[in-house]
């Protein structure tokens, strides 16, 4: 008995009226890649403005291998991947295979050893990368699925290709949005069955981690745990949330039950958006938009 590969359905598609993939030489292609969701975004580098977005979500539980196969299929059906030469291609990896290392302690030759502290690395299946965060004075060490890296570097020959971790995009995007405060600030990004929690204080990173959850009880447990660990007050401190949840969703309801001041995040500042993006929820796609700030 054979098992069919889960289909991915398109859930968002936005193209600026003036967008033309033939001008990819002066544009950036951003890809947010996870086992259950693939987002593609295009930024016109001349105008510093997002001009296209496509979003694909698995209709049922998927795997990294399935998502890579879907990405390859899309390369013959969407103009965003049919075009192979871009000024910049940046891919954000969604997984829990990452660790943050203080910049002063970082040793390039020890990247795999750092990851072994909180992740199981399979050398034949994963490639180890790192991304520098100068303002935070740390390095994000993470893995990229080897088949994905092979396909991307082959498909986009002639383009400048870079891999970063989703948490790097989130941290940099949040730094652009956050205001300096003497109180810790909690920022939440919700994915399918994953929640990433980032705490800043005075624009310094206090906490960043991603947790797997299967219920709203699991979800709120991690949120309250971090609030407690960072001595934040759920009745006083503001919490900002982005990602895959809606105003009437169970996750939003449980947040409002335990935390008094919950607000949806906005699109990142420091970059423009075609008016076509006005039709999208402001708190969605933040991790993909924030790939722009991972220079």
Helix content: 10-25%
How many helices?
8
Question: What separation lies between the terminal Cα atoms?
Answer: 47 Å
Give the SSE order as H and E letters.
EEEEHHEEHEEHEHEEEHEHEEH
Structural class: alpha/beta
What does this structure look like?
The protein is an alpha/beta fold and 295 residues long. Helices cover 23% and strands 34% of the residues. It has eight helices and 15 strands. The strands form three sheets. Strands 1, 2, 3, 4, 5, 9 and 15 form a seven-stranded mixed beta sheet that branches. A hairpin with a 4-residue loop joins strand 7 and strand 8 (138-145). Helix 6 runs parallel beside helix 7. The protein is globular.
Brief characterization of the structure:
With 295 residues, the chain is α/β, with parallel strands linked by helices.
Provide keyphrases for this structure.
seven-stranded mixed beta sheet; five-stranded mixed beta sheet; alpha/beta
Topology, please?
Layout: E1 8-15, E2 27-33, E3 37-44, E4 49-58, H1 64-74, H2 79-82, E5 88-93, E6 98-102, H3 111-115, E7 126-133, E8 138-145, H4 146-155, E9 161-165, H5 166-177, E10 185-191, E11 194-201, E12 204-212, H6 216-229, E13 238-243, H7 250-258, E14 261-264, E15 272-273, H8 286-289
Parallel strand pairs: 2-5, 4-15, 5-9, 10-13, 13-14
Antiparallel strand pairs: 1-4, 2-3, 3-4, 6-8, 7-8, 10-11, 11-12
Helix pairs in contact: 6-7
């Amino acid at each position: 008995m054979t098992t069919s590969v889960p289909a991915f359905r398109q859930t968002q598609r936005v193209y600026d009226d003036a967008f033309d993939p033939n001008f990819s030489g002066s544009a950036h292609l951003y890809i947010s890649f996870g086992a259950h969701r693939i987002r593609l975004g295009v930024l016109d580098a001349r105008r510093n403005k997002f001009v296209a977005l496509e979003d694909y979500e698995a209709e049922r539980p998927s795997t990294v291998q399935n998502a890579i196969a879907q990405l390859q299929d899309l390369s013959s059906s969407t103009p965003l991947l049919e075009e192979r030469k871009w000024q910049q291609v940046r891919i954000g990896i969604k997984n829990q295979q990452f660790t943050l290392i203080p910049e002063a302690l970082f040793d390039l030759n020890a990247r795999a050893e750092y990851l072994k502290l909180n992740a199981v690395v399979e050398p034949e299946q994963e490639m180890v990368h790192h991304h520098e965060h100068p303002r935070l004075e740390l390095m994000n060490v993470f893995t990229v699925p080897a088949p994905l890296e092979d396909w991307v570097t082959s498909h986009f020959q002639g383009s400048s290709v870079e891999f970063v971790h989703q948490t790097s995009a989130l941290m940099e995007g949040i730094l652009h949005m956050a205001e300096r405060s003497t109180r810790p600030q909690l920022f939440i990004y919700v994915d399918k069955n994953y929640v990433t929690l980032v705490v800043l204080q005075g624009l310094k990173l206090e906490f960043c981690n991603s947790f797997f959850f299967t219920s709203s009880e699991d979800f709120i447990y991690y949120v309250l745990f971090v609030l407690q660990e960072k001595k934040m007050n759920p009745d006083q401190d503001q919490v900002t949330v982005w990602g895959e949840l809606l105003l009437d969703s169970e996750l939003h309801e449980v947040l409002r039950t335990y935390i008094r001041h919950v607000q949806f995040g906005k699109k990142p500042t420091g970059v423009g958006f075609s008016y076509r993006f006005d039709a999208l929820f402001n708190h969605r796609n933040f991790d993909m938009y924030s790939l722009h700030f991972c220079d």
